[in-house]
Amino acid sequence: MSAFPPANVVKSVASTSSDRHETTDSLEDWDVIVIGSGIGGLVTASQLAAKGAQVLVLERYLIPGGSAGYFERQGYRFDVGASMMFGFGTEGTTNLLTRALDAVHVKVETIPDPVSLHYHLPGNLDLKVHRDYEKYLQELIAYFPHEAVGIRRFYDECWKVFNCLNAIELLSLEEPRYLMRVFFQNPLACLGLAKYLPQNTGDVARRYLSDPTLLKFIDLECYFWSVVPADRTPMINAGMVFSDRHYGGIHYPKGGVGQIAQKLVEGLEKAGSQIRYKARVTNIVMERGKAVGVKLATGEVLRAKRVVSNATRWDTFEKLLPAESMPRSEQKWQQRYQKSPSFFSLHLGVRSEVLPTGTDCHHILLEDWQKMEATRGTILVSIPTVLDPSLAPAGHHIVHAFTPDWIENWQGLSSKDYEAKKEEVAAELVDRLEAIFPGLAAGLDYQEAGTPRTHRRFLGRDDGTYGPIPRRKLMGLLGMPFNRTAIPGLYCVGDSTFPGQGLNAVAFSGFACAHRIAVDLGL
């Protein structure tokens, strides 16, 4: 059985929005059409709607959110992807989810997480990343006392990056008037960011740290959200993640991660714009070299002044547009970046007694440093019910375990062999998780697995990829494209645009994209 298929409650939500607009959209021209309702696409759409634009979001599935969606089974509400949520803080400018929701006058109730991550690593390295920054440093230094000074200096560098980001309004770096304004308002912050743009985290770490195990730990600190080690992780991104988990903190949305997308849609519609579900875009319509609309699988053509693709760049430039006419800039980008792995996801319902009181929400399990980047080497775990028990039946918890995997490992199998392999891999993961959750197998109440093929099918992502990763070491974020493309009228948003992967990063991309389009439309 595959994860993420529609639940009954989802069908009822989707049909009302989709059917409501089915007979009228083809007669209308829109200011902006957004392909896909991932968080990047929804932030773009809602920001533009708040500025008065008429926006239409087209979603191929039955609910919004993409990787930030949900599905329901037997009383469990499972998050499709990760549940570690940045961007819900109340201070500064990096609280992008709070700001996105506020713009369309909606709110999501959240639950603070006192420990953002609990590491279970080789050599009995059992470490918690506490919200309290000093508490985290003390725990890390206790394992590496000889690196005490270097540890503080490295994370101080991360704070310098974050403080620069947190001092300026985060909008489109493609808009000259914005750049001039923020530079004159805060020149030191802008110069600080310019300094770190070409740097990678690994290079910064090695200035201060030398212990091989500690450097491997920094690699894993990056890998769990960037899917590459520190040498290929931009310092700008690391500065945001490593600092904001202590500054703004990690907050889980009450009712599940899917609440974020649902509330953004609610705000979008209140602002006078629309979303259509079961609306699969097959082509971006071009006229005289310009993007002017989209064509749906039904044959319907919808026109707009601007088109935004929240699909991956591979889907956008190889499927929605003729691959043979790919702009040279996109060809160069694909030479620098490749698709990251997808994930094997295991959604479990377990009896509460399996998890002792005080169990943390997020965990990483790695038994061998050499296997960190290997297929199914690192296991990431979310247990959102320790924060929000309403997501599971009384007396039960959700355990969502996911691990990097490649679609090639799941191709060419018969239906029988495919299901058998899923059962085999699921059993292996449960067995490994027994090391940190003894009795897990005996306490299982529900189990459902998803493979890279599942992610490709339900999330519409080429090969089910998590996003782009550098093919080789690059100069920080300088290789990441912004929102405008070489095709007039066409913009991209999401994890294959600046600043990259992660929920808060794609929200940043959405703010930037909406700002650039608003200027272009004169809003």
UniProtKB/TrEMBL annotation:
Q: Which UniProt keywords apply?
A: Carotenoid biosynthesis, FAD, Flavoprotein, Isomerase, Membrane, NAD, NADP, Transit peptide
The answer on whether this UniProt entry bears the keyword NAD reads yes
Q: State the needed cofactors, names only.
A: NAD(+); FAD; NADP(+)
Source superkingdom: Bacteria
**What pathway annotation does it carry?**
Carotenoid biosynthesis; lycopene biosynthesis
Give the InterPro entries listed for this entry: Amino_oxidase, CrtISO, CrtISO-like, FAD/NAD-bd_sf
One GO cellular component term of this record is:
membrane
- Classify the main location: membrane
Disordered, as annotated region:
1-22
Q: Where is the Amine oxidase domain?
A: 39-517
Q: Which residues, if any, are the signal sequence?
A: none
What biological-process terms (Gene Ontology) are attached? carotenoid biosynthetic process
> Family, per the entry?
Belongs to the carotenoid/retinoid oxidoreductase family. CrtISO subfamily.
The molecule here is called prolycopene isomerase
Q: Which organism is it from?
A: Thermocoleostomius sinensis A174
Question: What lineage is this protein's organism placed in?
Answer: Bacteria, Bacillati, Cyanobacteriota, Cyanophyceae, Oculatellales
Gene name of the record? crtH
